[in-house]
Protein: Adenylate kinase
Amino acid sequence: MRIVLVGPPGAGKGTQAAFLAKNLSIPHISTGDLFRANISQGTALGKQAKAIMDAGNLVPDEVTIGMALDRMAQSDAENGFLLDGFPRNVFQAEALDAALKDQGQELDAVLDLEVPEEEVVKRIAGRRICRNDSAHVFHATYSPPKTEGVCDVCGGELYQRPDDTEETVRKRLDVYHTQTEPIIDHYKAQGLVVTLSAEGKVAEVTERAMDALNRTA
Structure:
């Protein structure tokens, strides 16, 4: 299956993508991983992206598209893939459509993970991370530490990342609504969008997604 996963920040796209890709035996292709891999491997696109980022500028769509298409052309994606974070806007979506058409392929589904805006803010703004190990993550409401501000695992100080503040989260949501949300209408016109509630336990959301994909297969 060839799937695009879309949803606002805090919808749990990365978590769901990992589970769904494993269940479907297809690679999980995320924009963040693409950038890190290309930069660390010193590819032509990676060098171009790094120079742009080091200058404090946004990476152009063409570079992101190039990285995504290169990754999708690898052998493990021959029978499908799950895209997470790409396409991020309508221009990228149109480029993906054209590339797939050239290969005689098409998307099977676009999973739209829906979460109420205030829940997104609550999820992200409540996150607290250990300064000693960023893998130790807590939440002020959903999974608080035994002692406020102290990591249960190693005793390190818990802190809130600057991009997790409520003000920053709302700005990220504005960007999502302006730039990314329009791709949902783009794909609705193709009859590809499956809208799912991303509220509840992780396993419940995964089950909803798998049920929906099985119905589209």
